[in-house]
From TrEMBL:
CDD domains: SelB, selB_III
Domain Tr-type G: from-to ranges: 1-169
Main localization of the protein described in the UniProt heading: cytoplasm
Cross-referenced InterPro entries: Beta-barrel_SelB, EF-Tu_GTPase, Elong_fac_SelB-wing-hlx_typ-2, P-loop_NTPase, SelB_WHD4, T_Tr_GTP-bd_dom, Transl_B-barrel_sf, Transl_elong_EF1A/Init_IF2_C
GO CC annotations on file: cytosol
UniProt-recorded name of the protein: Selenocysteine-specific translation elongation factor
Species this protein is from: Candidatus Halomonas stercoripullorum
GO biological-process terms attached to the record: selenocysteine incorporation
Gene from which this protein is expressed: selB
SUPFAM superfamilies for the chain: EF-Tu/eEF-1alpha/eIF2-gamma C-terminal domain, P-loop containing nucleoside triphosphate hydrolases, Translation proteins, Winged helix' DNA-binding domain
Keywords of the record: Cytoplasm, Elongation factor, GTP-binding, Nucleotide-binding, Protein biosynthesis
MF term (GO), any: GTP binding
Location in or out of the cell: Cytoplasm
Length: 640
């Protein structure tokens, strides 16, 4: 169990921890000199076998508030400290607000310095604490009176804390390893060391990890958990990792970075959809307000985009989006604190919902419904994605991108696929992308493909079919092409479609010309046949009743039907003429062994340029092969 202190500066948090554990958490010279905590400190008292208890002492001074937020990462129990002589103070209130926004719901209250207050004063402070906690998750939290100076009440507080630790339910490590770095230093004989609280997963000596956002790969040379040497550490542990790697250097690491499993390595992200909550006693928040965001152990500057309106009133909640100035790492359910840097006040906070929001359609009803379902998932411990998957299958016609969800929620893909199957859905996987669909959504997408193909057959009767990529762009434009092609493969496997090379067609489709195109072809065919080896170009076939583009379209259609061959642009030869020219090529090969352009030109009676174009056509289709300035036959049976 990790206990974090909270409370106003100089209310005795550090002294109390020293009394409870025997450890002075103020380790910095400046902290000793000034008598106040500047950065979080840590203490781990001896506990019975099988139980562990750690204390994180966070600063109380307003100037070090960001360290207080950072120190709260990984805390599951709070020890709220209020001095009996001062009572509830501004930082007491703000710390409690932050703890509430961070989702911490369990704790104790220590009324300190009772040796400096009489009975009446203690009762006044007790009443003010009770009023402060009303309406918060810590309502009805026990208030214990202590004096770090005399020791009065300390043993009773220790017993309560130790009992809570022994009652703490062990939570199995979930997801891939994540650690928010709060210290980086170099140790003689060891090298680079980073410390932090494991927020998820498990790590062992020898593991390969990634440091984000630097994108550096490192190996765990050694580790300590709760200040003791260990081979492994898990979610909730306070860890020091001794890292090594070719790219690793002290200058490339800093407080606020993340150490994560390689599965969580990702392009750096600067936009995060969140469930936003505004405090009661703050000004209304307008869309695109500049804010300071505390996320993990770092602070970021950025803006808030509101997704459900242009303004959020005090005490309200709304779906929103953080737009950060610099990249960050976050997963589903991570909490953030939002402050107004100019006014120096905490505005509210939020839960991370999606770290890969779409660029368009952010406010569409189905998108907002998906985010609302993700927000519902963050209210459960451990994380249960069932509400989000149910909603996503219901409202996402193009499926749920499970690849993004697996990363965002830090869960294994296999677990998501199993959940989708249990909900009656289906999944499609291509390369590194997996999408989940309801059965109804899949049937609709398959119908869209078939309907568009039928439409194309009607309007393009001369086509063998529709090229796969074109069909997916026409029928399911918002679906990733790889997934859309899998749908086509399903239709082919079920014999609902037929394949003709890169084209697909409905069974029974036979390419043919429309009645009007057939009539035009009957006018053009005699002109092409009569011209022998020098057919007219398209522009030469134009008349008052025959437009150039229409002629070109019909000739292309006839080429697809095998009636013509396009030897070069706008030069179409009847199939019988091409066979005749192939016979000439073969005769020249029989007579001379190889075909020369001049001899071929003489046999055709055309110009040299046209003869070479025809020979190049035979090269392209595989009938001949060029060797320097001559050609040989590659496939003598091709035209017979």
């Amino acid at each position: 169990m990790i206990v974090g202190t909270a409370g106003h500066v100089d209310h005795g948090k550090t002294s109390l921890i020293q009394r409870l554990t025997g450890v002075d958490t103020d380790r910095l010279k400046e902290e000793k000199a000034r008598g106040l905590t500047i950065e979080p400190g840590f203490a781990y008292p001896e506990m019975p076998e099988g139980h562990e208890l750690g204390f994180i002492d966070v600063p109380g001074h307003v100037r070090f508030l960001h360290h207080m937020v950072a120190g709260s990462a990984g805390v599951d129990t709070v020890l709220l400290v209020v001095a009996a002589d001062d009572g509830v103070m501004p930082q007491t209130r703000e710390h409690l607000q932050i703890l509430t926004l961070l989702g911490i719901t369990r704790g104790l209250v220590a009324m300190t310095k009772i040796d400096q207050a009489d009975t009446e004063r203690r009762q006044q402070v007790r009443e003010s604490i009770t009023a402060l906690l009303a309406g918060t998750p810590l309502v009805d939290t026990p208030i214990l009176e202590v004096s770090s100076h005399t020791g009065e009440g300390v043993e009773a507080l220790r017993e309560r804390l130790w009992t809570l630790a022994e009652q703490q339910q062990h939570t199995a490590s979930q997801g891939h390893f994540r650690l928010a770095v709060d210290r980086v230093f170099t140790k003689s004989g060891a090298g680079i060391v980073v410390t932090g609280t494991a927020l998820a997963g498990r790590v062992a000596r020898g593991d390969t990890l990634r440091l984000e956002p630097a994108g550096i790969t490192a190996r765990v040379r050694g580790l300590r958990r709760q200040h003791r040497e260990s081979e492994v550490a898990s979610q909730g542990d306070r860890i020091a990792l001794n890292l090594t790697g070719n790219e690793l250097s002290r200058e490339r690491l800093q407080r606020g970075d993340w150490v994560v499993a390689t599965a969580l390595a990702t392009p750096r992200r600067q936009r995060f959809d969140i469930q936003l909550e505004l405090l009661e006693d703050v000004p209304a928040l307008k869309h695109w307000t500049p804010v300071q965001i505390h996320l993990g152990v770092n602070r970021y500057n950025g803006r808030i985009a509101l997704l459900e309106g242009q303004q959020l009133a005090a005490g309200g909640s709304m779906l929103g989006q953080l737009v950060l100035d610099t990249p960050a790492h976050a997963c589903l359910g991570d909490r953030c604190i939002i402050r107004d840097p100019s006014a120096g006040i905490t505005l509210g906070g939020g839960s991370i919902l999606d770290g890969n929001p779409p660029r368009r359609g952010q406010r569409r009803p189905e998108r907002l419904a998906w985010l609302a379902a993700l927000a519902e998932c963050t209210t459960t411990t451990p994380l249960d994605l069932t509400p989000a998957l149910q909603q996503g299958l219901r409202v996402s016609p193009n499926g749920i991108d499970l690849s993004v969800l697996a990363y965002t929620a830090n869960v294994e893909m296999a677990a998501l696929v199993a959940q989708v199957a249990a909900l009656g859905g289906d999944t499609l996987t291509v390369q590194n992308e997996t999408r989940a669909f309801s059965r109804e959504a899949l049937e609709l997408l398959l119908s869209q493909l078939l309907d568009k193909l039928a439409h194309n057959h009607t309007h393009e009767p001369s086509m063998l079919g529709t090229e796969r990529g074109r069909l997916t762009r026409q029928a399911v434009p918002e679906l990733p092409e790889g997934i859309a092609r899998l749908l086509i493969e399903r239709l082919l496997a079920a014999n609902t479609l037929r394949a003709h090379g890169p084209f697909v067609a409905l069974p029974g489709h036979q390419p043919t010309l429309s009645e009007a195109d057939e009539a035009l072809w009957q006018q053009l065919a005699p002109l092409l046949e009569a011209a022998a080896f020098e057919p007219p170009r398209v522009r030469d076939l134009v008349t008052e009743t025959r437009e150039e583009e229409r002629i070109r379209d019909v000739l292309h259609a006839c080429a697809r039907l095998g009636r013509l061959y396009q030897v070069r642009r706008d030069h179409f030869y009847p199939a019988a003429t091409v066979v005749e020219m192939a016979d000439i090529v073969q005769a020249l090969a029989s007579e001379h062994g190889r075909i020369q352009a001049a001899a071929f030109r003489n046999r055709l009676g055309t110009g040299r340029k046209l003869a070479i174009h025809i020979l190049e056509f035979f090269d392209r289709v595989g009938f001949t092969r060029r060797i320097r300035d001559e050609r040989v036959i590659r496939n003598a049976d091709m035209w017979h």
